[in-house]
Amino acid sequence: QVQLVESGGGLVQAGGSLRLSCAASGSIVSRYAMGWYRQAPGKQREFVAGIDGSITSGGNTKYLDSVKGRLTISRDNTRNMVYLQMNSLKPEDTAVYYCNRVQPPQWSWGQGTQVTVSS
User: Fold this and answer.
1) CA dihedral 38, 31, 85, 21 (to 10 degrees)
2) Alpha-carbon torsion 105, 110, 114, 115, what sign?
3) Cα separation, 58 vs 103, whole angstroms
4) Fewer beta carbons within 10 angstroms: which end of the chain, N or C?
């Protein structure tokens, strides 16, 4: 059973930055396309950013239109980690952020990390 642990969230003012981290159990990050998702209060979980699986660090990326140019996904296969660098944050980015593989079937969701952006 894959375990996902997200961290790095917090309270930040609009325009600020955060770096989210996702630790996955087992050597799986390099084998699958990985993504970041978010769920705001009263809304469905949505895809935010994804990075292709690769045998080396790096890979093609894809983003939700509203975060392009502000959020950057990356991976470190040697550490089995996925990151989300968040710059120029906006109040509408407020949500709980999760990581998971992109293609179904997805693994059990972690607890997520709360990101709150104040105006």
Assistant:
1) 70
2) negative
3) 18
4) N
Backbone angles phi, psi at 22, to 5 degrees: -130, 120
Which amino acid would we find at residue 61? T
Beta bridge partners of 85: 19, 72
At residue 93, φ and ψ (nearest 5 deg) are: -85, -5
pLDDT tens, residue by residue, 72-85? 999 988 889 999 99
Do the bridges between strand 46-51 and strand 61-63 make them parallel or antiparallel, or are there none, so unpaired?
Answer: antiparallel
pLDDT at 54 over 70: no
